[in-house]
Amino acid sequence: MTAALPAAVRPRLSWRQRLLRLLPWHRRLALLACIGLLSWGASGLLHVLAHVLQPRPATLAPPSAALALDGLRAPATVLGAAGIEAVQALRLLQLEGQPYYQARLPGQAQPRYWHARSGVESELAGRHAEALAHHYLGSVEPLAYAGSLERFGGEYGPMNRLLPVARVDSQRDDGLRLYVDLLHDRLGGLVDARKARLGELFRALHGFHWLDAGGPLRLLLVLLLAGAAIAATLLGLGLFVARRRARTALRRLHAWSGLVLALATLSFAGSGAWHLLHKQRAALLPAPYAARLAVAALDQAPTADWQAAGAPLQRLGLIELDGAPAWRAQDAQGVRYLDRAGRPLPDDSWRRYAEQRLAHYARRLGLPGAPGPSLQDAFDGEYGSMAKRLPVFKAAYADPARTSLYVDPLDGALAGRLDDAERAEGWSFAQLHTGKFLGVFGHAGQQGLLGLLALSQVLLALVGLALLRRRPRPRTAD
User: Fold this and answer.
1) Which of 72, 126, 169, 242 is the most buried (most CB within 10 A)?
2) What single-letter DSSP state applies at residue 432?
């Protein structure tokens, strides 16, 4: 009857009545949002569970045994005899008490090995991988090399960062396997059967990766569900204010629970949507720097004279400095740079090396100037532990986006690129999506609170669905 009245005589609706008229939209949006809340809440619980049950290594530090430097042949002699003219990377390593040259050849991802005394090439990738796995497990249990990976996928995803890696399987009942970086002796990740199953479920429920083959369908679905969750939450807040009191206890429980969890819902859904959109728009990083070092120039074999007094060498790797091969030597006292004959280079050699590697990436990214680099040896709020690599060279540029670059000194790889957009999204994701701020309660407290929030989201969605099911249907005329 009211709709038939002229506009001039219709009763003016109060703000409460206007909000209450949006109740059907809240129900429609909530029905759609429940798909996301149930899926994301369940996967949030899985994430906390996987974190608690995560297999952990005995150590995170790479091996640091003293290198044997007696009776070695020069790399030019050893590799030249095999017809190798250039290498992308070369280092001396100690394996099973024997010295070997490990070389990465241009265009080849997997390393090759030559005995540094006899010059005989050996197929050592499997034994090297198993030795590293024993080191990180702190055990001498039976292990088996299971091949190498040159791209991310499945249980070893992009968050692991390191490639190529070798896989090593244990014979444990839990099916534990390790992924190790043979080029720098780093641990890429540990996975057991339980973590693999939880990870597969998490990827399916949290990111809807079962829709990957559908092109943009996955992105559109996730954004639709996140948008519905945000809109339903905002409408729910408005309805809570507009309604003086819900009619039933279940409705009051749903209303008050929604109010308490509103900030968490908006934070999770909003930061998740931002993260997904940001990844879609993120520019690809430049191709990794690839040195090409002439083997003929490496005519000097490492000897004990290359060591600092009282400090046996623990790592010795070839780098490119000032366009020529040089050695990066590491011992208990720190890192030194040597020329191809083992003579000490000036103390500022690390700075020149950092500037040259950083300049390679800055040119490709169009960054201005040449800021002085610094050495960063700890993770912080910007360059976090997800980056995996330490120490790194850092340079901050004066472009409008305030870009910072991070380069791994071991291989010259670009370990990270941050600008203001990355910083803002990274802060949002860390604080609002993964609950980093809850770290003030300790690690166990943080995980417990995140699990409680995830469970609460699931229960809130279930109560909402129960209310929709119990909603009285309008009567029809007989």
Assistant:
1) 72
2) I
pTM of the complete model: 0.87
* Strands 165-170 and 143-149, sheet pairing: antiparallel
| Cβ 435 vs Cβ 267: under 8 Å | no
Between helix 23-53 and helix 217-242 the angle, nearest 10°, is: 120
Cβ atoms within 10 A of the Cβ of 131, count?
19
Encode pLDDT of 46-84 as tens digits. 999 888 888 999 999 999 889 999 999 999 999 999 999
Distance from C-alpha of 7 to C-alpha of 225, rounded to nearest angstrom = 38
In three-state secondary structure terms, 410 is coil
Other CB atoms within 10 Å distance of the CB of residue 339: 16
What Rg do the C-alpha atoms of the chain give, in angstroms?
29
The token pair at 193 is: 């059967």
**ω into residue 373 within 30 of 0, thus cis?**
no
Residue type, 341: A
The residues near 61 (Cβ < 8 Å, ≥ 6 apart) are: none
Name, in order, each residue with C-beta under 8 angstroms of 16's C-beta and a sequence gap of 6 or more.
242
Find the farthest-apart pair of alpha carbons in the chain and give their distance in angstroms, rounded. 105
User: What span, in angstroms and rounded, lies between the C-alpha atoms of 413 and 415?
Assistant: 6
Distance CA 296, CA 75 (A): 8
Helix (H) or strand (E) holding 234: helix 217-242
Residue 319's CB is within 10 A of a number of other CB atoms, namely 23
User: CA torsion 432→437→442→443, rounded to 10°?
Assistant: 30
Block means of pLDDT (10 residues each) for the chain, length 478 residues?
Answer: 56 66 74 90 90 92 92 96 95 95 94 96 96 96 95 90 95 95 96 93 90 87 92 82 70 77 90 91 85 94 91 95 95 94 94 95 90 91 87 94 94 92 91 88 89 89 79 47
**Domain boundaries of the chain, sorted by first residue:** 14-53+202-283+434-470, 75-194
- Contact assessment for residue 171 and residue 157, using Cβ atoms and an 8 Å cutoff: no
